[in-house]
Amino acid sequence: MSNYNIAVLAGDGIGPEVMQEAKKVLSAVEQAFDLSFTLKEFDVGGIAIDNHGQALPPATLKGCEDAQAILFGSIGGPKWDSLPLEERPERAALLALRGHFDLFSNLRPAKIYPGLEALSPLRADIAASGFDVLVIRELTSGIYFGQPKGIEGEGEEQFAYDTMRYSKKEIRRIAISAFEAAQKRGKKVTSVDKANVLLCSRLWREVTEEVAKDYPEVTLEHIYIDNATMQLLRYPSDFDVMLCSNLFGDIISDECAMITGSMGLLPSASINSENFGLYEPAGGSAPDIAGKGIANPIAQILSASMLLRFSLNLTEAADAIDAAVVKTLADGILTGELLSAENRDQAKSTSEVGDYIANIIATANA
Ligand code: NAD
Ligand code: IPM
Ligand code: MN
């Protein structure tokens, strides 16, 4: 029986709650597909600050280095918001991991499944036109990582600055990720930028055009970020792969999640050039609902599926998870945020949704 080593970093807020359900599903996959996953758990984020004095303790980093892939929950929350930026969980743990492993290619797939249009907040006729988008977000450069950044001066003269910076090499490798993906999907790349204002976006367009020449069967369109946010709501079916810089991809992916119905449905894969990856829900620690057992575990479960698919090459097992999730939604097994106010009394809990998905995998593949 093949064994795989996965580092599990549940983190803060709803992280541990939804991770519990992803572990349940992985355990169903082990049984059904005769596989063995060794899951080693490590503290990360706020809980790691509380327990070890830092958001990314050396033992956690070592655990990630020793694993074949990282399954990540979510980090951060009000308790740690007042720390200096460089010590906060988001920067000291999550951005540090992305940088350390050079996880430059972030894949965020968002889809309205046929028959599940009612989950979308879009007007019915617009939702019915279809939505199946892969956001490809550059994850280790741009304004998140550009130097210098700082805060200087005193009183009203005090000022802060961040640097948005992209090299041609960084743009080229993420553009290649987008074209490679588009070739296997709808054969269209929409590159999102602000080339009417930003030099980085001008360079982004130039390099993207160059890369496009190697993919004659893929159409390339450019769109400004502000227009993109509205066209997504107006003509969602116009989009296939959306190629975004770090900050624009962060914003666009939350919008794409919500078009499908909830932040709790959007998984993500952050991959480097060796296919090593960190897999996490695109959403955060959701302090507003943490501890109540009502968070949607699907983004975490689909992140585990992406881990199996991209880092472990376990396609059949990943397909089984994806199919079980679609069936669960189609069967109306929904957490509260997917229901209208008058139907919310029918909401299922985090663990009920996880049980249902795990059970489908176990019975369908028995
Ligand atoms: P958030 O994504 O945590 O929450 C935004 C909204 O989406 C909230 O209303 C929340 O209840 C809802 N939501 C998110 N996930 C959900 C789920 N699984 N089921 C149901 N509803 C869900 O964003 P925020 O409130 O801006 O950030 C909270 C904290 O999380 C901050 O500290 C932020 O920095 C951090 N954060 C972490 C990550 C990460 O670890 N990858 C990602 C985003 C934000
Ligand atoms: C995400 C999150 C992170 C980001 C934060 C927590 C640093 O919002 O993964 O989308 O901005 O990349
Ligand atoms: Mn985000």
Q: Portion of residues in helices?
A: 40-55%
Helix and strand content put the structural class at alpha/beta
Ligands, ions, cofactors: nicotinamide-adenine-dinucleotide, 3-isopropylmalic acid, manganese (II) ion
> Uncertain regions: pLDDT < 50 for 5+ in a row?
none
Please write the CATH class name of the largest domain: Alpha Beta
Strand order of the largest sheet: 2-1-3-12-11-4-5-10-8-9
From the N-terminal CA to the C-terminal CA, the straight-line distance is 17 Å
What spatial form do the alpha-carbon principal axes imply?
A: globular
CATH topology label of the largest domain: Isopropylmalate Dehydrogenase
Q: N-to-C SSE series?
A: EHEHHEHEHEEEHEHEHEHEEHHH
Provide the domain count.
2
Percent strand: 15-25%
The average pLDDT value, as a whole number, equals 97
Largest sheet: 10 strands, mixed
Pathway: Amino-acid biosynthesis; L-leucine biosynthesis; L-leucine from 3-methyl-2-oxobutanoate: step 3/4
Binding site for NAD(+): 77-90, 284-296
Protein name: 3-isopropylmalate dehydrogenase
Binding site for substrate: 98, 108, 137, 226
